[in-house]
Design brief:
single chain, Rossmann fold, Pantoate--beta-alanine Ligase, Chain: A,domain 2, binds pantoate, 36% helix, 290 residues, alpha/beta, seven-stranded mixed beta sheet, 10 helices
């Protein structure tokens, strides 16, 4: 176990578990912030938020190969580890968990966590196997840490729903907190992948949030949801997005399509810009209800 600037570093599940056991034996509650690094203000908001409800905070940094498809950006994914550690030194974080790939997935690793329909729709349709990779690594992180609480951002809304379901289905006992999306001043949701956008794409990108806000308002004024989804796709294409993978009003827990805004819903969209898929979503509560 190394230590730098007061931030403990764990490299193996055993090291982390020993520290967590000692904290919990002393009556302290432990929180986990799972990340893939390339930390931005959105991640730091997760650290701040969980620190309000636990006594010790661990941030895990692991670029998980099993949640990337063969044609995706696993190799290119940013890994600024020194910058990440420096950013955490100013945060209410007590430790980082930095396993390597061989520790997470030894050669004879053979278990995976399937999440059924929830993992096959929306993102699951465009990224086959993605949620199996996420569910497996999150199960490992929760198991290795035995954290009392873990926190995930609403930016990856489907991921949050999948994790809540797996924690419930597998009786993992970890409390799952959700944190709101952190945005740039122009509305673009923070994401490590925003670094892939050139100046031209960056100028188009905030149209995703603007479009979702317009659809939300129209839905709350009684607009027909399927027509609004088509309108959303049209607006995004007109703004300069190359393709729209989906733009859809869904039930916030089952992620099934809804036909009327008669209860709170989630509007989720993914649009492609300069080869990058940008995700965003909004809660849509019926006006005067929900
Ligand atoms: O959201 C992420 O950064 C990742 O999907 C997670 C939850 C850390 C699992 O690798």
């Amino acid at each position: 176990m190394d230590e730098a600037k007061g931030l403990q570093q764990f490299r193996t599940p055993g090291e982390m578990r020993m520290a967590v056991r000692a904290w919990q034996a002393a009556g302290l509650r432990v929180g986990l912030v799972p990340t893939m690094g390339a930390l931005h203000a959105g991640h730091l908001s997760l650290v701040e938020r969980i620190a309000e409800v636990v006594d010790r905070v661990i941030v895990s940094i692991f670029v998980n190969p099993t949640q990337f498809g063969p044609d995706e950006d696993f190799a290119a994914y940013p890994r600024p580890i020194a910058r990440d550690l420096a950013a955490l030194a100013d945060q209410p974080a007590d430790a980082v968990y930095l396993p390597d790939a061989a520790t997470m997935y030894p050669e004879d690793f053979s278990t995976s966590v399937q999440v059924g329909t929830l993992g096959k729709i929306l993102e699951g349709k465009f990224r086959p196997g993605h949620f199996e990779g996420v569910a497996t690594v999150v199960t490992k992180l929760l198991g290795a840490s035995r954290a009392d609480v873990a926190i995930f951002g609403e930016k990856d809304y489907q991921q949050l729903v999948v994790i809540r379901r797996l924690v419930r289905d597998l009786d993992l006992g970890t409390e799952i907190l959700a944190a709101p999306i952190v945005r740039e001043p122009d509305g673009l949701a923070l994401s490590s992948r925003n670094a892939y956008l050139d100046a031209q794409a960056r100028a188009v990108a905030p149209a995703l949030y603007r479009t979702l806000c317009a659809l939300k308002k129209a839905a709350q004024s009684g607009g027909e949801l399927r027509a609004l989804e088509r309108e959303g796709v049209r607006r995004l294409r007109e703004a300069g997005f190359e393709a729209v993978d989906y733009c859809t009003f869904r039930d916030p827990e089952t992620l099934q399509e809804i036909s009327r805004l008669d209860r709170p819903a989630r509007l989720l969209a993914v649009a492609r810009l300069a080869g990058t898929r940008l995700l965003d979503n909004l809660e849509v509560v019926p006006i005067g209800g929900g």
